[in-house]
Design a protein that fits this description.
This is HPr family phosphocarrier protein. With 89 residues, the chain is α+β, with helices and mostly antiparallel strands. It has three helices and four strands; from the N terminus they run βαββαβα. Strand 2 and strand 3 form a beta hairpin.
Length: 89
């Protein structure tokens, strides 16, 4: 299992557009990918689940990947975070 912790830095948190990018990234991989915010853990391949995390600015999102391409998935999430989930601010 591979894991990464990402701080949400977008002004409005993980709203629809960045959440959709997270889900699209998760769906590129065969691994089981879980997103965790606080005590809430969800399937990262579901937009409704990811939105339900309620990840506001400053939240620490943990992404866990388990499967044959887990390391590649975590690398993709690192890149997504480095690009601020496609947000300018």
């Amino acid at each position: 299992m591979a894991e990464i912790k990402l701080e949400i830095t977008n002004k409005v948190g993980l709203h629809a557009r960045p959440a959709a990018l997270l889900v699209q990234t998760a769906n590129k991989f065969k691994s089981v990918i879980t997103a965790i915010n606080g005590d809430t853990s969800v399937n990262a391949k579901s937009i409704l689940n990811v939105l339900a995390l309620g990840a506001d600015k400053g939240s620490i999102l943990t992404i866990k990947a388990e499967g044959e391409d887990a390391d590649q998935a975590i690398q993709a999430f690192k890149e997504l975070h480095a690009n601020n989930f496609g947000e300018k601010e």
